[in-house]
Amino acid sequence: MERTILHIDMNAFFAAVEQQSNPALRGRPVAVIGSRQRTIILTASYEARAYGIKTGMMLHEARQKCPDLILVPANNRLYTHVSSGIIRLMQDYTPQVEVFSIDEAFLDVTGSLNVFTSAERIAYLIKSRIKARFGLTCSVGIAPNKLLAKLASEMKKPDGLTRIAADDVARVLENLPVGELCGIGRRTQEKLARLGVHTCGELGRFPVAVLRAHFGVVGERLALMGRGIDGSPVLSPEQEPEVKTVGHGMTLERDISSREEIARFLLQLAEMVGRRARRYGVSGQTVTLTLRYADFSTFSRQRVQPQQIWRSEEIYHAALQILDSLLLAQPVRLLGVRLSQLQPRERQIPLFDEERRRESLTAALDGVNERYGEFSVMPASLLPLKGKGSHVISPAWRPEGIRNVKVS
Amino acid sequence: MEFRIEKEIFLKAMTKVQGIIEKKHTLPILANVLIEAQDHNITFTATDLEVGLKSRYGANILKSGKVTVSAKKLFEIIKELPEAEISFCAKNNFWVEIKCGKSVFNLVGLSPDEFPKFPVIDTDIKDIDKNMINEMIDKTIFSVSNDETKFNLTGIYIKYNSEEGNLVFVSTDGHRLSLINKKINEKLSDKFEDGFILPKKGIIELKKLLENIDGNINIGISDNNFSVSNENTTLIMRMVDGDFPDYNRVIPEKSKNVAVIDKDIFLHSLKRISVLSNEKSKGIKIKLEKDLMTLTSSNPDLGDAKEEINIIYSGDEIIIGFNAKYIIDILQAIKEENIKFSLKDNISPGRITPENDENYLSVIMPMRL
Predict the structure, then answer these.
(1) Do A375 and A249 share a domain, yes or no?
(2) Cβ–Cβ below 8 Å for A348 and B249
(3) Active-site residues of A: which are they?
(4) Less CB within 10 Å around the terminal CB: N or C of chain A?
């Protein structure tokens, strides 16, 4: 059966939210940065984009292009709040809402067309309600699958509405550079170029066997992508596969190399991971530490624990053990901690009182944080961090129904 | 050094040291066995610095001396040789030549001077009943923790109480505990009175040693080393550093909820019911009511099971969860026909003893239902 999928992409989300919450910023070139010490632009308002300022640009470069650029440090809590509100609004039109990232979502409206007459009408309703309630604009793509819906939403920005109809797919893709498709990164694009494949049309006609030889199993998927075919379902949080790993990563305000500083971030990450694991009622046996060096080279090391763990300090100690087994070659810019080999948490009560007290303490801390917000109670060593979660939202971050988040 | 020895004896000696040698290869010398020839005896020594074994055998010594070679390779070679006399000869630069029939092997060795010194224990030596020690190990070893991070639980705690003339073995993994108390006639030293923890690896080697000897054994202590010896063999182990938890605190007081249960019926029922419990946590549910015990398990992926057992019970009605394995372990260690199972409520530890013997007991913490 033909599906109707919407992809909704908030325009310059962080910058637009800032402009809405501070009228003085409206109509002016604004760039959101990770923190005062970070030097990369996370999002730029459309006014700033007019000067050629883009996501990922270095600060000094941006200042050269636009000396009047207003820099705003990211306010994660605000973005999360707005994002959750927008997602709830989308859920009025279909239960099948897949939160793709903090500012993007897929909606499968196939079953809602009877009620709302058409996909375009749903798109207009959502756009106008987001505009009225949050003052924000978004671009919407309508297509028979997620791949094409995402492509469609990219076609007109800001405030766009684009439909790629089933019988129009071949024409749209014929001369489209492969890099425009979500899922084909620069490396894949370069590899394809070496095979003489530049457009989606060429990719779709390319022999699958050759693709498979070069890309392995992904080869087949690439061929399908070239023809605009994507069978992946829109997964609402309840439908997502069971939690397999619980992980968090954060890009640091600045590159660090002292063990003490890294350990403090690990403690914070371990607390975030532990909290989520406990909320899901799971424990895990493998702890993975991911590090990204200043030059962006990234690697992970993991360690299997003698038994299932779930308390934050156990996760922290495991991560620290891994850290201590490494010889750091460079300062670190990103840290990630992940707990895997998950199982429903054992219900065995410990024999010794001290152990039982440790468990009660964890439960009590969780209770407080549940009620008064994350990091309301925290280890004193985390205090200088001002008690905010990670300072930069990782691309895998999702505002609610967080299920299968992996360290990017 | 040169000696001749029967294959059978050589193989027996090499088999014994296999369990001792260091497997992590932190120090190459620890993968080797030290072979010393003197007078009419060959002495084999292996150690991983935690547990060490030294054993002596008669042989035809042509020239005295000592060498060290890989214990694993030597074992593999000897094992495959024909049943005949083996000639063993040390060459230059710690090489060793082994000849048997038409086979010749040349093995690289390491200097015997590098081999760690084997501590000599000659203080506090006591003669003790081997069968009793064997039984006490069997009844406690299963609840020793395998979690290296809880190192103070990775062995059996041994303590002597001079007032009552009792020797106690206790082990726990933090979820359950087993304890056995035995009257002994020997007076043991202050070291025993203070209590100490013996590592699981050492205990396992001790078990092997006890199986192969007749009569009594000598035990001794010096500093942090514990030794067990008979005529030809000495096993030494370093005590586990750390304090054993105060186990008396977790042994529940007498309770009015006491069930008397046929051990074999209970044991087999547990084994059946736990087939359908969670693979890892082995959680089962036990319901106690007037003269009846009901065991149930369920696993969302597999199904459920239920079994009733007639017991003697007149306490409160209790529904409680347990890891079936913990109960199975203790029941398998009990020789008596009936057991006593005492409970307080479903969040307090249960206590299992043989029906008429309070000197052996297991304390098991329940699972939340």
Answers:
(1) yes
(2) no
(3) 104
(4) N
